[in-house]
Amino acid sequence: MILAAAMNPEAFNGAQDAIARMRRGDPDALTAMISRYQHRLYRYLLRLVREPAAADDLFQQTWLRVLEKIGRYDARRNFESWLFSVAHNLAVDGWRGNRGESLDHAGDGDESGDPPSERLRAGDPDALEQLLDFERGSMLASCMQELPAIHREVLTLRFEEDMKLEEIAEVAGIPLSTVKSRLRRALEGLREAMDARGRRGV
Amino acid sequence: MSENESHEAIAGMLALAAAGALDAQEQRRVEEHARECPACRRELEIWSGYSQNLGRLPQPAIPAQLMERTRTRLMQEHAAAADRRWDELMLGALALFAWTVGLTFWFVARVVTGGELVVMGANLVRFGTWTAGSTVLVWLTAAVAAIALGRRRRELRRAL
Asked: Which helix (H) or strand (E) is B118 found in, with range?
């Protein structure tokens, strides 16, 4: 759905228009952009820092920084990559400024929202399959939490944000070759965590 | 490259192949090999399962009022920046006004006193003395006025 929206020329033009209006200081345009990206940006930040309160604060800081820097944003660049790179830099700055609390030791927190039973529609013939899917997804999400932040980041950008490797490189400020090796290590780490959980029978 | 070396090389690329992270040539190499090699084909299926499931993870719930809180914080920052700009502008305007008033009074004082007004041995209508005295006095007043006006403006904004 996200990809479809990204490929929709009307949505693209709408975003470009909102960016142009935001640069002129139109508060409605800013509201429209926050609304447009709130789910994706919050999800990315939460995957990165794991703490809902920290993700919440970073979300707000990201938009403050966007407001501050929008005049210097190069319209030829992909806005989403730019937005996520702003969020990435703020998360890294926060981590550097707070070395006692590493990103990799932040609390787990329940990020899944509603319990599975509430996510299932009553009377749905595929309810059991949905429940299994949900449990599989929950286990994968839980194993992902055990990975280092840089691996969680590359996984969420590639698979949830559906970003190209070049875009991930732009967001994280790393070379393309590093994105590839990081992605491979992240997948291998995730598989190891899943296998270990399977062996423990969790 | 021997068949075994090729197999090892391909095995190391399977995760990235399933993630769509290889270039077209590498991807083709992996797919061709997987067609002939049951072990790699099985591995590729497993990695494909990971890729698919990673795109369907449970989605986090957005905290209540996140958008409204963000918008409020942005508006507060925007207003604070506008206040700072206004204070700077006001201070500049008041300083200019103070200079104008100071110079006008100096001119009037020179005309009225005939260019000499000695108090405790100092000629107050000498340009240097007048400038130093009026600068300190009038600029201090201007700064206090600017701060008071800025504070009032902020109080009004909070009251609205």
From this structure: strand B118-119
- Bridge partner residues of B123 (DSSP): B118
Residues B30-47 pLDDT 10s: 999 999 999 999 999 999
* Beta-carbon contacts of residue A109 (< 8 Å; ≥ 6 apart): A50, A51, A52
pTM, rounded to two decimals:
0.72
Nearest Cβ partner for B67 among A35, A111, A159:
A35
Which comes out higher in pLDDT, residue A43 or B101? A43
Question: Is A40:A2 a contact under the CB 8 Å cutoff?
Answer: yes
How far the first Cα of chain B sits from its last, in Å, is: 77
Find which of B59, B65, B76, B84 to mutate to test the A interface (most A CBs within 10 Å of its CB). B59
Is it the case that residue B156 has pLDDT exceeding 80? no
Q: Determine the residue of chain A that is closest to B56 in CA distance.
A: A137
Among A173, A162, A27, A11, smallest CA distance to A87 is for: A173
pLDDT per position as a tens digit, A123-162: 454 666 666 667 778 899 999 999 999 999 999 999 999 9
Q: Does A47 score more than 50 pLDDT? A: yes
User: Distance between CA B115 and CA B124 in Å, rounded?
Assistant: 9
User: Does residue A8 register a pLDDT over 70?
Assistant: no
pLDDT of residue A175: 97
Please state, in angstroms and rounded to a whole number, the distance separating the CA atoms of residues A85 and A75.
Answer: 15
Q: Which candidate, A86, A84, A85, A106, places its Cα nearest to that of A95? A: A106
Kindly determine whether residue A183 and residue B69, on different chains, have CB atoms separated by under 8 Å.
no
Substitution target from A49, A65, A184 for chain B, most B beta carbons within 10 A: A184
Q: What pLDDT is recorded for position A9?
A: 56
Q: What is the ipTM of this complex?
A: 0.75
Count of CB atoms within 10 A of residue A20's CB?
A: 12
Token pair of A94, please?
A: 């926060």
Name the residue ranges covered by the structural domains of chain B. Answer: 3-54, 66-159
Q: Which fold has domain A2-111+146-200?
A: Butyryl-CoA Dehydrogenase, subunit A; domain 3 (1.20.140)
| Three-class secondary structure assignment of B33-76 | HHHHCHHHHHHHHHHHHHHHHHCCCCCCCCCCCHHHHHHHHHHH
Tokens of B52: 């698919």
